[in-house]
Amino acid sequence: METVTKTPAKGNFAEKIKYKLIAxxxxxxxDGIVAVKDVSMKFHDRAVTALIGxxxxxxxxxxxxxxxxxxxxxxxxxxxxxxxxxxxxxxxxVDPIINRRKIGMVFQKPNPFPTMSIYDNVACGLKLNGxxxxxxxxxxVEGCLKMASxxxxxxxxxxxxxxxxxxxQQQRLCIARALxxxxxxxxxxxxxSALDPIATQKIEEMIQELKKEYTIIIVTHNMQQATxxxxxxxxxxxxxxxxxxxxxxxxxNPRNETTAKYVQGQFG
Amino acid sequence: xxxxEQRAEFRTHFRYNVGRRLVLDKIIKSAxxxxxxxxxxxxxxxxxxxxxxxxxxxxxxxxxxxxGAVGSDDPGGIGPAIQGTVVLIGLSSLIGxxxxxxxxxxxxxxxxxxxxxxVRFFNDVLAEFPTIVIGVFTFVLVVLTVGNFSVWAGxxxxxxxxxxxxxxxxEESLKLVPVTYREAGYALGxxxxxxxxxxxxxxxxxxxxxxxxxxxxxxxxETAPLVFTILGSSQFINGLDGPIDALPLRIWRLSSLPxxxxxxxxxxxxxxxxxxxxSINICVRYMLxxxxxxxxxxxxxxxxxx
Lengths: 268, 306
Known about the structure:
Largest sheet of chain A: 6 strands, mixed
CATH topology of chain A: Rossmann fold
Number of domains of chain A: 1
Distance between the termini of chain B: 41 Å
CATH architecture of the largest domain in chain B: Orthogonal Bundle
Number of strands of chain B: 0
CATH class of chain A: Alpha Beta
Distance between the termini of chain A: 38 Å
Radius of gyration of chain A: 19 Å
CATH superfamily of the largest domain in chain B: MetI-like
Strand content of chain B: under 5%
Order of helices and strands of chain B: HHHHHHHHHHHHH
Order of helices and strands of chain A: HEEEHEEHEHHHHEHEHEEHH
Oligomer: heterodimer
Largest sheet of chain B: none
Shape of chain A: globular
Number of strands of chain A: 10
Shape of chain B: extended
Strand order of the largest sheet of chain A: 6-7-8-3-9-10
Structural class of chain A: alpha/beta
């Protein structure tokens, strides 16, 4: 499949530049079962976009399409385009590895590398991508741990295994690890679903801080969380994107009946 | 929905025979314990038997000297055999471990297709092969081609014995590494081979080491492939292209001699072989797993559950 990266026509070029990431007609299947149906979305730069919807509606699958993680699953297929700064991620000319360095990802369950120390967990993305300079590594590790508001808790024991931390700390370690490769977009798949309210609050505060520099897309089950952290919200249901707009509008004045029912908690 | 009546009915079907369950629990427990004893008895019996029969042969000379003339008053030692076994284990591991681990990586990471399944099947077949067949095969392929018995031929045969064991255990332990670690690696923009070699392989280290040690223990005791490849010798090693001795071969030779002193030496050699394998096992585990054990102990002291 040869996908030519077309220079957009002059008319919509100005429009496209406003958006960091654009998903066009994404359909994703597992073993022929459609998980995401023809979803198109535009993600604003330096803003938080939340994806909400009941379990199994395709939020996570859609998120995984955005950094080409979906294709790593066995028997997974995908059609559509994802444009990062106007360039198609799925073009044959683009190496998925390079894109994954631009689009960081935080997973639902904390998954620090079990055999690595806290320091190495954060530094390994850089080390394995060729950064050798000890000074740069030290700086990045400290900076990223500070951004993930974990530095004060671990600065004394960076040599300890990442697994020795508590669940909430592990998740923040994973966020620091994702930030360490200096991505431009951060995908978060229910980053707080396994955490207690205090750890959740810390992560939400961090998202507010990070959004000044990053385009953040967060999948969440928790609608209060979506209202707290996001600027834009997309509601997905049964693989379709039902409604997408500013968070305030989605929650206070939904245009779609299903969205209204869901945000009012009538089903889910 | 389940109605309260249904629920009450379901409950009547439960059995509340706590007494019987406790008895059953004890029976199962003792059965398990008994099986362990049954498994340990032969092991202990072999160890005790080997030691009592062979201990009188053990001495410094026995470990370092070359064997004496058959039937003579000076029985000599098994020095060349110990040396030969150590060299053979080293060389075979040098061939077998990299190839086996790489093969295991292939089966686990890239082998989810027809080719992989075929390789896996024949690998399993190879693991079941009688080792004497491997000996004959090496004899024809290497010894007859080169023209003499050699250390290389023996190492080649033994590495073939090692291969399927290492490949299978590597594959199985790599498969146990959760997919979430790999995904975390991919999401960092790390290339697949790097994810495999740094993240996956280090997470699977325990299983890998166990597999390699199992295969080392296995080849240390192999006799059949050696008969056809290294021949046996009563001299210390003289280049890798000449014949040498090995402990299993020496045990076999000594124990078939009609002299009491030779048979005692055979027992002694068997004891040495057991100790040799045991110490390789302990040393490797200690060296490779030391760090983890230490951190584990530190967790325990801190009261952190791992």
